[in-house]
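Hey L., structure's done. Input below.
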Amino acid sequence: MEAEENSSRPVLIILHNGVIVTMDRQRRVFRNGAIVVDHDRIVAIGQSSDVLRDFSAVSHQIVDLHGQFLLPGFINTHVHTSQQLARGIADDVDLITWLHDRIWPYESNMTEEDSYISTLLCGIELIHSGVTCFAEAGGQHVSGMARAVEQLGLRACLTQSIMDAGEGLPASWGMRTTDDCIQSQKQLHQKHHNTADGRIRIWLGIRQIMNSTDRLLIETRNTAKELKTGIHMHVAEIPYENQFVTNTREAEHGTVTYLEKIEFLQNNLLAAHSVWVDDKEIGFLSKAGVKVSHCPAAAMRMLGFAPIKEMLGAEICVSLGTDGAPSNNRMSIVDEMYLASLINKGREVYLKGTTDPTALPAETILEMATINGAKSVLWDDEIGSLEIGKKADIVVVNPFSWPMVPVHDSISSLVYCMRSENIVSVMCNGRWIMKDQKILSVDEGEVISLAKHASSQLLKKAGIQIPSRMNFL
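Output:
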């Protein structure tokens, strides 16, 4: 791209001669469009000829897109950034081994510096796949995450992993009291909320219902209301979870039914996965305005087929997430878009014995990655679409390479053909954080080197050994 470095950026940036996919309410697409960015916001959008004429007398920087696509920044609504150093440590193992022998030992031995490095590494991959905002699914060291997010230039809703109950937890964690859990999150909110030029928000977290007392659930609900923030929670991931809730809490069906009973379901709740829910519970989620993060790769790996088509039919806001590296390995929201459409088409065959190629069409998938993502993180007043007055979170896509040529249908090509390699430049909050596929705020090579060393030391400290499946000589 023909653009100057951030340090010498003029007041206005004009991006023109591009195909602008706005994702606004009218779903407008400008074939030869332009956008004007003033500091961190979009101040004009329209046909290139009109925009260039209207701003001809203003000091500005002009970027010719040469027909490339311009999209709102993608939003990953469920990712464990602190798990990036654990990529590959829990492949092809059962769920109990995954959790008790790999993930918990790994997480419980992390330092704040480990979390910082892990989030840097994860953030690099997120940016390369066009993500400008993410919802952290929960980790132990939020301050390390925040430091990395500020440095990378990303936007994020950060969440601490909170548990005050459960069996099999690492001894080093101890058993935190409910008061400790709430107080630590209030302190994090006070320290980090609305920092990094407003790019960081602090949410409350519940790891899962099996590690939460009723009091923690109620106090979390009330505290989130008090702080006017969101709650991020893993909900109805596996059949055992529903059975556990039925046995221990006398719920009729499982997690969602019980959360509805205690009035935990609210419109500020982001429910991750939500695979094992029935029609009645879909109704509960819809009525309460709960948002759902669909993580297709992770679901196929360990959880099952989430009823996404039914949720969308019930007008539930469903967005997309990657989950963490030990659950997916790929932190590409571009891959998740492709998988989400195909998996949910294939699910129709599984359920009905017949195909439905119209299930989750391309335009729906693109909505899930943009405007639905913004609604899910309670930020749709400022991000998720390219509109005047919204934040300048923008992705530039080059469609003129072998994965996408020829382009007959722009929206279809973006969902079914685009790869992370087609993402060339990314802007967040009016600042380029990647240009010409080069991350601007950190040295990628240095981060990779730090990550390799930190991961090796962390696995040794945790006592995690990955069995060899090949006869290496």
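The longest strand covers residues 12-21. Residues 1-8 have pLDDT under 50 and may be disordered.

-- N.
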